[in-house]
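Hmm, what's this shape?
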Amino acid sequence: MNTPTPGISFNLNCEAESIRTKTRDFVTEYLIPLEADPVNFDEHENIRIQTLTGLRKKARNAGLWAPQIDTSRGGMDLSMTACAAMYEEANRSIFGPVTFNCAAPDDGNMRVLQQVASNEQKDQWLQPIIDGEVQSAFVMTEPAPGGGSDPSMIRTSATRKGVEWIINGHKWFITGAANAAHFILVARTEPNPEEKRRALTAFLFHRDQPGWEIVRRIPIMGPEEHGGHCELRFDGLKIPDCHRLMEVGDGLKLTQIRLGPARLTHCMRWLGLAKRCMEIAAEYVNHREGFGVRLSQRESVQLKLGEVAHDIQVGRLLVMHAAWKLDQGERAKKEISMAKVHVAEVLHKSADTAIQLCGAKGYSKDILLEWIYRYARQAKIVDGASEVHRMVLADLYQEQGNDFWKWS
């Protein structure tokens, strides 16, 4: 008799399943009802801070807080596969991730600080984010000809002067910057353009430090995270060397440590939004009639619903495979890129299909679909455009050949 080979399991353990159902029930009871009342939204179409404060207290009391953080610092210490299940349920509501303190960019910033910061840095810079006292931002992207998807093009400079670093440069589309207090900055410390792997270093700074400014909050087509997407200019910002993250020249390494899991957690959340689109569409077509027939009985409608349901499930399997790989200690570069490309497409397709099925009501602001549709368009751009991830996959295929599809 053949003995089964240990490997991927698509069954959640008891703890992860319990957390998933608790999250689902919390979202259904406390969050989804709030979305229908405009009074719960701020001027940037996000949840009002006053409303959020009470919800966060409820989430903490329910044991649903900071799932990515060690229990010693007040988190839930979930594996990536358990996070996949929880984040999906959390983002059935547009208010979910920020309520449970697992929204971008704080989610990715907390993860990387927990992994690479010193204990002193964790106490000063990480713990307040975990506790919900401050927001954070990751300061990397620059206007052309600076670095975007290619960090090696970063031009913002950090020049050492004694025990300090002097920062000069220009950044933009920095998510959450207008509300953030703690910033992770990636700057060039090696002027030689040939030293791509060791040219960058990461630093921590506080919003009250002089030598930098927010030039503007950049208007975007979609709803915004708290703090928007900002353009920043640095003109002599001084950062003590003790606020450097990792070693000099480890900036690119830090971005890789941060951005891989961050891309995947985006996908986890987007799957929840995609499923919510299906919920809204299904409820509508199950009740709406035309020409004597319920819409849900029409083959054209059934084909649309079936196609999106199929695509969402493919995305869930891609995400869970990548999460499992990360839990095994692998980088999962290939698996994350595949998930990022597919789930970004699925989110957009789910919102578009749901709007089509709901007709004029779907296009209106009476229901949430138009909000999700505008938000969904960014998915194919943020944390590496889809084209960049397809290039990554093409390079890996050329390198690996048929081993691209190996099981282990």
Remarks:
- The CA atoms of residues 24 and 89 lie 5 Å apart.
- Residues 135-249 form a domain with the Butyryl-CoA Dehydrogenase, subunit A; domain 2 fold (CATH 2.40.110.10).
